[in-house]
Amino acid sequence: MEEIETEVIHSWSAPRSLSTSLMYSFAQRDDTEVVDEPLYAHYLKVTGVDRPYREELLSKMESDGNKVVNNIIYGPGGKKYRYCKHIAKQRMPGLSDELMKKGKHFILIRNPLNILQSFDKVVPSSFNELGLADLVSVYSELCAAGKRPPIIDATELQEDPEATLRGLCEDLDIPFQASMLKWEAGPKSVDGIWAPWWYKSVHKSTCFGQTDKYGSPFPALLYDVLEQSLPFYNMLRSHARHKRFPKLPTPSLPVPANEKLLVWVGDEILPRDSATVSVFDSVVQGGDSVWEGLRIYRGKVFKLEEHLDRLFDSAKALAFNNVPTRDEVTSGMGPGFNLYGCTLIVLAEWKPPVYDNTRGITLVTATTRRNSPNNLDSKIHHNNLLNNILAKIEGNNANADDAIMLDKDGYVSETNATNIFMVKKGNVMTPHADYCLPGITRATVMDLVKMENLVLEERRISLSEFHTADEVWTTGTMGELSPVLKIDGRVVGDGTVGPITRRLQSSFKKLTEGLGVPIPTYQQPA
């Protein structure tokens, strides 16, 4: 056969990942020759790992890794493509850089839950034997070189082989061939020396078999290896091609800088995508948590003590145990306090005011009533927000920014997210905080009203009074002071931001510029 320059396709995987089935699939192409684990002998020679076939393999296969790279992987061939099946852990240090620089690369992954029992029948399973960390290393190195490899999941390959193979061929920029979907049963001439130990099952196959819906019970002895390996599989899976089950689109972030956040969860700092809590945590199973949102102005935390007071009061009201101290929340964050009981989460992100405080917002009145203290006291700053969410859905459906919520008697309580104020004939009014959270920004604005020598009334206020108000605004840590220009289709005042609203916005801004607890490491921009 005439030798021609061959383009190499590298498949990287952990063992028992349907990699041999995929090799058989590519072997059915009329333009492809395949090579089964060409670096295996080099791996055994360098590591000294024992295998039942070790001596035979070392005597019959080239064990000099760089000779393998130059002469076998990238040597001349007889077909357009050469498909090289690699097990990631066999890529040992010291191999020629050409291995990764040249050719087309892709990664095949499989859930270690489905790998371990099969692997353990031949070789005792361990984290190093599976080599998922090595597979992540392959992915990272290729990405760093600007050659981000496509990733396919073995489960997708079993459930919809044609769509998965078509997608892979598209990513590799090679034509799909229908012959890839079937092969003859039995041993193959391309099999490695190790086939009698590892390929008994695949030799019975003629195509990519269906997944076992239920599987067999997972052995407890392999649990530790599974626990160690799953994070690496999940990291790669997050970048995999999903044909039948496409990933939901990643939501756009209002502030791009928040894409690379670090988040404190429990007793460790984690990247944004890894910041999770256990499904066994009570916040997941029952919404059993309390929270605070704080703002930082000019390197200082605004109203820190007030927020901490409310946080600890809320935790006490819910009878939380092992609550971290104020010092641990604000400075130490040591791992010792979170061994039992509460999980502390600190999420610091860039967040501009959530409303347009220059042009104002619109509100509608929700049919959903605010919780009564008889049912769930809103003075506890908890995470059970379904009451608010239902009202917010009504606001969204009406194309409003937020929704006003009434108490059981029909008086205005607050919005789904903020406290609310109104002005009539120069007097400032706000509802009693009987049904709503007595917000810290609300209390701050009430103090500012008095400092500005304005009349303040805290009383029951009907919805019609808000409809006929001269000015209306909402208050909240995330929104600050937000002018309301329309309620239920009715224009508030003359439809512009009112003078008292602007006056208090200005006073609030001055207060935030001077008040607050400094962050020790904060550097004021030049």
TrEMBL record:
What's an example Gene Ontology biological process for this entry? carboxylic acid biosynthetic process
Could you tell me one molecular function GO term of this UniProt entry?
A: catalytic activity
Write down the InterPro entries for this protein, in alphabetical order: Aminotrans_IV, Aminotransferase-like, BCAT-like_C, BCAT-like_N, Class-IV_PLP-Dep_Aminotrnsfr, P-loop_NTPase
Q: Which segments of the protein form a coiled coil according to its record?
A: none
Q: Which PANTHER family match?
A: AMINO-ACID AMINOTRANSFERASE, AMINODEOXYCHORISMATE LYASE
Annotated family:
Belongs to the class-IV pyridoxal-phosphate-dependent aminotransferase family.
What protein is this chain from? Answer: Branched-chain-amino-acid aminotransferase-like protein 1
Q: Which organism is it from?
A: Centaurea solstitialis (yellow star-thistle)
